[in-house]
Amino acid sequence: MKKLLIMMMTFLMYFSCASEKKKEEPPEETFNYSVERFADLGILRYQVTDWDSLSLNQKKLIYCLNNAALEGRDILFDQNNRYNLAIRRTLEAIFEHYEGDKTSTDYEELVVYLKRVWFSNGIHHHYGEEKFVPGFSSDFFAQAVKALPDSIVPTRDGQSVDAFLAEITPVIFDENLYAKKVNQDSSLDVIVASANNYYGGGVTQKEAEKFYNALKSSSDTTPVPYGLNSRLVKKNGKLAEEVYRVGGLYSSAIEQIVYWLDEASKYTENDQQKRVIDLLIEFYKTGDLRKYDEYSIEWVKDTESTVDFVNGFTESYGDALGIKASWEAIVNFKDMRSEALTKILGDNAQWFEDHSPADSRFKKKEVKGITFKTITAAMLGGDCYPATPIGINLPNSNWIRKDFGSKSVTITNITEAYDKVAAGSGFLDEFVCCAHEKELMEKYGSQTDNLHTDLHECLGHASGQLLPGVDQDALKVYGSTIEEARADLFGLYYMADPKMIELGLLDNPEAYKAEYYRYIMNGLLTQLSRIELGKQIEEAHMRNRALIAHWVFEQGKKDNVIELRKEEGKTYIVINNYNQLRTLIGDLLAEIQRIKSEGDFKEAKNLVEKYAVKVDPDLHKEILERYRKLNIAPYKGFVNPVYEVVKDRKGDVMDIKINYTEGYAEQMMRYSKIHSHLPTYND
Ligand code: ZN
């Protein structure tokens, strides 16, 4: 299992349902979630909710961890390509010192290119991996570099600016050079064909595989992640690892990380948390992977602390062999409100189980709600910045997961920001035709969407039981679609129940209609925006939504429960009878639970193939076109807040305040000045 590295794009691919949605938040009308747009990217801002519920000590701890999270940024640039720091620093120098016409297309394109380099932590697209094409000419680039004072051009020692340009220009402009950051084409040597910097010149895929296979032993049940924190190079014809550690490769950045972790260690909430931080420091100092595993184990065990973090060489998506890990960081703290909400659901789990429309043979006699944890991000760094995952699921080591478990959480304030931006995009105006529903969605959409997620996670997945002797994998490839449908239906069914009002989870008996409408509209229409024209529905969550929406649509046809209305070439959903819709949802829940409990593969296959896979090509085209006009950026990322230390007259820290005014370029330039310690060339 890998961390949920889920970048939010139009074409979302969910690894886990736990990362689908978000928690509730009181409306903050003044907060501006959108920062700017360029190329295929949208820059957003997230809000650190409930910051002032933390103690001063916790704030200090986060402040130190935040700095540790920013000090590794250069490492990632260099890991992604050996020229990334040289290119970034050259572009930043031009950005800062250019005295020519700033309204020229060349200059404007250079700024867009720099913004893309910042976003991708290098010259390759953060998602597609391909090198992006500059919109300015190489002549313009050469002139702009030559106009800079020689001392700020990041040349190698003793290198002339002309020689520097000769070296760097093809890296930016030659489309065949370093074409792909990670190349998985199995007909090629994937190391040689990948532009990343995890392997030195001349190292081949065969050699690297042989090198790491030789380290592994089949009798070792607790293997360290060999090769995770190093570059594999050839020295005098022999392979050797350059280990990322204090005194090793990337030392000057790692020393800064260690400095801030040392500071953080002074403000820990408890001994366990201090143990975690101190072990991480030891790992950074020694580069010893056994220390890394020790640290990971203690990190998993720490479930009590409010403040938590990820800081280190973590995910190996950037290496075609999946051995080397990119540097990343997230600082976070527990989302208290979601804890309270899931407790209410957990306390009432048996009531929900007993009252579900499923056959009593398929119900649990004793059901326990699943605890569903969410966190608030305080700082994003390295490979989690600016594009960020919406959940964390770590550690990656299989034996540690088996023996000690893992932490799996959703990041509330990140998903919140995505939702808020989507809501302001004109989406409702485009796709919701009925004024009453639009009003309900504006008022309750966010709340009911979250409540549905909570019901899905805490109760839906926890409910029901298999009949004795039924294999839990009986539904095979249809298993995850059926399971997600089961949890979604459980949530939908209870959304409309008076119990929601009784428990204080909703305050208006009509509020659930916002979620019913959104869900059906998404399942029948709007989720098609995530699929390429000509393709079918593949992903399990999308299939489950299509299944539910199409099934209730078909079953309700004779009574016109749901209507597809066409106005001026646009298709809309009209729900004519909500009571009957709820009854149909209950019917399908009972049937899906039966399929699951009996392991009825044939019927699972029938339902999925009939309702969940196929796409109407005309409707698909229409939806894509309507989406395109909304101009929603396909990929999104975030700027971080700025943390300001407030001191009293004696110089003691009184508080740490958050400022949300920093712009994208401003932030990137600031990080490149104060959190940039690596040499330009690290080979
Ligand atoms: Zn789920």
Polypeptide structure, described:
With 683 residues, the chain is α+β, with helices and mostly antiparallel strands. Helix content is 45%, strand content 13%. The chain is built from 24 helices and 14 strands. The strands form five sheets. A five-stranded mixed β-sheet has the order 5-6-7-9-8. Strand 10 (562-567) and strand 11 (570-575) form a beta hairpin. Helix 1 (56-70) packs antiparallel against helix 8 (251-264), helix 17 (479-495) runs antiparallel to helix 21 (578-598) and helix 19 (512-524) crosses helix 20. The protein is globular and about 80 Å long. It starts with 33 loop residues before the first strand and ends in a 9-residue tail after the last helix. The model is unreliable at 1-28 (pLDDT under 50). Zinc ion binds at residues 17, 456, 461, 484, 487.
